[in-house]
Amino acid sequence: MSATEQDWAPLSRDGMAARAAQDIPEGWYVNLGIGVPTLIGNHIPPEREVILHSENGVLGMGPAPEKHRENPWLINASSQRITLRVGASLVHHADSFAIVRGGHLDLCVLGGFQVAENGDLANWSHSPKEVARQIGGAMDLAVGAKRVWVVMEHVTKDGKPRILRRCSYPLTASACVTRVYTNMAVLDVTPAGFKVVEIIPGMSFSELQARSEAELIR
Amino acid sequence: MIDKFVRSMAEAMDGIRDGAVVMIPGFAEVGAPNALIDGLIEQGAKDLTVVINATGKPRVPGVKVTGFARLVELGRVRKVITSFVRAGSVCGEAVKAGTVVAEVIPQGTLAERIRAAGAGIPAFYTPTGADTLVAEGKEIREYRGRRCVLEEAIHADVALVEAWMADRWGNLVFRGAGRNFNPLVAMAAELTIVQTHHVCDLGQIPAEEVMTPGIFVDRVLHMPVGDPKLPV
């Protein structure tokens, strides 16, 4: 399909982040992964008390610091300087990952390479043969949080689907994803497969299906 | 009188042997015991197994390699247990060349394996990593309906620690997000060596505010090195 025929525009990275942020209610403890998920924090209004966790031992991250007011002892999982909200706490790594692995987070939002219709997630490696292995906290978060949402582009740069029947890349965790926010749609992972919650304006169900390998449910 | 303060880096590093397992905490540069790593480089122990959360950023032309990456560059590291190896980093290159063996595991599993060693727990089951490459060769058992992986404690010969404040008994306080792996590695090693920004009189740190009690600490060196820098 050429660009002139399509009557829709995929969401930007910020658009995806803003869309996911709408669905995070006050009171939740939330971990935002590296990349687009981190942007979600910018779209949660400060008056909504959502408590953000960072794997390096921070509970209650605030907005990015103003220039020249940075505290060199406070960073997030992406090594960016951060602020603390009033009420924040700092813990060591075993406590930080007890928060993650012990099922205490209401939500974690991760980036993804691929999500399968049974909720399998691949987001850390393109091949078992890769020398570089960048696991970090992804496997702990995918297994430990009460809900796992993935924010990612609906297809790869060269147009290959990421919404799949089975992941082809090495898994981060099996059957863990509950919801996916892409630049084209919001999908719930259900026992019957991917259920479409919402499609971007102007795009039809069949156009979305054409960009997904897994069969979508209306 | 108990006095765990040592007066020189040579004294701090004394007795670290070739083949030692060394734990290095820190997250990015925050809480990283960089002065002690330099001391270890100077001290000369080789054939080391290093336990460290992340093994460093890709090389930047013109930027001097320091810290753990320098230890690798000097050929002093045989094995690394870590959660993160990047392509193009000094460690990534060494792994690719086969000169360093990397055991790459989830970050929470790394933290818990260190904590387990300090707490006298030889092994534990966790659902993290089940059905993934990190479960290969490990025992799997189902608990409460979930597949779990058996993970073993990681003991160390030496832990290098960075503290904000310390007293002569080795009671420690960490600053900001600099706590991270520091209290864990202090518990898991035979020999725990601390660099501290500030020296406190005994009793100056209120008992309620001690983050790591001196029982886990062997040597303390006063190193007022200043604030951590953002990595290049």
Automatic annotation (TrEMBL), chain A:
Q: InterPro entries under this entry?
A: 3-oxoacid_CoA-transf_B, CoA_trans_fam_I, CoA_transf_AS, NagB/RpiA_transferase-like
Which SMART domains does this one have? Answer: CoA_trans
Looking at the keywords, is Transferase present? Answer: yes
PROSITE patterns in UniProt: COA_TRANSF_2
Q: Does the keyword Nucleotide-binding apply?
A: no
Keywords, sorted A to Z: Transferase
One Pfam family cited in the UniProt record for this chain: CoA_trans
* Matching NCBIfam families: pcaJ_scoB_fam
The record's family statement is: Belongs to the 3-oxoacid CoA-transferase subunit B family.
**Stored PANTHER family:** KETOACID-COENZYME A TRANSFERASE, SUCCINYL-COA:3-KETOACID COENZYME A TRANSFERASE SUBUNIT B-RELATED
The entry's protein name is 3-oxoacid CoA-transferase subunit B
From TrEMBL, chain B:
List, alphabetically, the InterPro entries matched. 3-oxoacid_CoA-transf_A (IPR012792), CoA_trans_fam_I (IPR004165), NagB/RpiA_transferase-like (IPR037171)
Q: Does the keyword Transferase apply?
A: yes
For this UniProt record, give its keywords in alphabetical order, as a comma-separated list: Transferase
This chain belongs to the protein called: 3-oxoacid CoA-transferase subunit A
